[in-house]
TrEMBL record:
Keywords: Membrane, Transmembrane, Transmembrane helix. The chain crosses the membrane at residues 7-31, 51-70, 91-119, 131-155, 167-193, 213-234, 246-265. It comes from Lysinibacillus halotolerans. This is Uncharacterized protein.
Amino acid sequence: MGKLLNFIYIIFLQFSRQPIFWLLLVGFLAYEYLALSDISSPGDVLTSTSFLVQAGILAFILFGIILVQLDHRHHLEDLYSTIERGMLFNLIGKLLFGLLLSLFFTIIFYVFYLIYYLVQGFAFNHIFISAIFYMLLYFCITFFISYFIGILIAIWIKGRLAFPLALIAWGLIGPINTSFLGIHLTTLARWLNLGEPNPSGVYNGLYGLSIDWFYWLKHFVWIVTLIVFLLIALYKTYSIIKRKTFSKLIAFSFILLLVICYGLSLDRQLYITAQDEEISRELVEFLYYQKEQPEAKSLDIHALSYEINLEINRLLKTTVNMELINNQGELNELTLSLYHDFKVKELLVNGKIVQIKRDKDLVTIPLTEKWGQDESIKLTITYEGTSSSLFYANNRAIYLPYYFNWLPSVDASPSFEVDSYGTLVRNNHQLKYPTEFVLNYEGREPLYTNIPEVKPGQFKGTSSTGLSLLSGELQERSVEDVQLVYPSDIKGNHYNEMKDSTIMLLNYVSNNLGIENLTYPKQVWKAPTLSTSDNSMEEMVWYTPETLIFSYSNSSWYIDSPAYFTYWLFPAISWKYEDIEVEDRDVFRAFDLMYCYLYNQIHNIKDEGNFLDWYKNVSSQGQKKEVLYALSDWLMENDAIEEKQLFVKDWYNLMKNNNSSWENVYKLLEKYKGV
C-alpha cells in the first residue's frame, strides 16, 4: 500500500506542475458560478450543465494522455521497470489518481451548488441528496471514464496522434454528441452518451434527476470494457501479467459484462423528453391511440370495493380484489378497461379462473353464470407491466391518479383518445359512487394518497372518485389543515393567492351552476407532467373534494396571470368533476371560454380575451360555425352580462342532460340573444 501511495504522490507532483490543470480548475468554477447565478432552480441547473460536463470530458481525456506522455518524455517507464511490479503500481496509481481527481472536482461543484441554493432560501430536502448521486454519476464517474480513455489512448498511440483521437472520443461520449453524430445516429448517440440523457430537456419536478439504475449500469459497462482494454495492454504491451491470469481476468470481465447487459435489457420505465429521443413519450401514446380502438358500451355497474396488493419497483405488480354490483340487468359477460401495457396474468370470478379476451385497453370477461340485477360478484385480477409514459409507476416516481385506468375501470373507454384536431386527450375514469379502498403497498416512499394510512404500508378509506397515488422528487408541508405536496426544486411561494382564487371560483361555480360538494380539499398536489397534452387548459388541473392536482410546471403555486388561472381551474371543478360527456369536445372548449371570460369580467380580473379568437379560428361549418361566430360577437359586446350568465347556466344544464348538440345551443342562443 505504501508503494502505491508513493506512486500516487509522484503522479500528483507531476500533474500539479502542469498549468492546464489550474487553468481548467479556475474555468470549471467560473462556469459553475455563471450557471448557478443564471438558473433559479436547483433541478434545472443540473440538467443544464451539459456543456460543463462536455468540457470536463475533454479535460480529463487530456489529463490521462498528458500523464502517460510525461512518463514517455522523461523515460520514467525504464525507471519503473527496475522496481518490482513498478509498472503495474504506476498504472494503478494513475487510475486511482484520476478517480480522486474526478471526485475532487465533483465535491467542489457540490459544495458550491449546495451553499448557493441554501443561501437563496431553499430548504435542504431530497433533491440535494439526489444531486449527490447525480454528480457522482455524471461528473465523477464520467470524468473518470474519460481519464481512463485518455490513458488507454496514450498507451496504445504514441506521440501527437493521440490528441486527434482524444477529440474524436470527446465528440462521441459527451452529452451533446448528437451535434457530432447527427440526428440519423440518435440511438447510437444515446448509448455512447456518458452525460445527462436529456441535455436539451427540462427538469421534471415529479420524476427528478436522471439517476435511474439503468444509467449506472451503462457507466459500469464502460468501466468494465475499459478494464478489458487495460488488461490487454498489461499483457501485450508491458508483459506484466501471465497468460493464465490474463485469460481468467478476461473471462471474468466478460461474465460481468453479460450480467450488466442483462440488467440493461430488462423492461423499465425511464423518463424521456421529446428533444432527445427518437420518439417522445407523448408520441408513444398518440401513435397507439390514433389507431382504431375497440368500442364497448359502458355497463351500469359500479365498484363497491377494491382491495389492492401493490408492488412498484422496476415494474408495477398488483393483485386487485374487486366487488362489483350490477345495476344493468342480467349479464353474461363483463367489460372493464385497463391500460394495455398492464398484462393480466390471472383473473378469477367468484374464486374460479376464467379466460379473458384482451383487446388493447378493453378486457372482456365471460361469466360462467348469469349475473342478475342488484347482485354482486367478486373479481381477483393479477397483472403487471410498465405504466403509461404519461403516468409514472416505478421506483423513481409514481403518478397514478384517479382518472387513469391503472385499476380495472368499469368505464369501458380507453385510457386516451385522439380528438379531431390530432390532440391526445386523457379519458376520465373516475368513479361515480362511494367505494371502499384497501391498499397494501410496497415501493418508493413516502407515498401520498387520498385515503389515510392506518399502519405502515397499508391505507384504508372511502372515495367517490377513485384512488390516487403520488410519489417522487417531492416535498411536503402543511398550511393550517391542508397538506401541500410539491416538487423539491421550488420554494412553493404564492400559496395564499392560489388558495383565495380557488375558493372564490369554487363558491361561485357551486352557487351559479348548482354543483354539490365543491369544497377546498385537504390535499393539494403539484405534479408537473411536462407533456404536450398539458398545453391544453382542460388538462392543467384535476379536482376532487379530497385532492386538487395541478399538472402545470412553474416555480410557484400561482401563475402570473390570474385570468389564465380561471381558464385552467374551471374545467376541473365543473364538467370534468361531474364527468359529463359530449359528442364534440369543442362544446366544452366553447363553453369554458365563455364562462371564464364572463367570470373574469364580473370579478374585475384583467382578461384581454386572448383565447376568444378560438371561436372564429377553429374548424367549423354549418350550425356549429353559426353558433361559434355568434358567441364570439356576443362576447365582444360589453353589455347584457346578466343574459350571458343565464345563457351559460342553461347551457351547462344542457350538457348535464346530454342535450348539448350545436342545434340545441343554437336554440338557446335564439332565446337569449336572438341570432
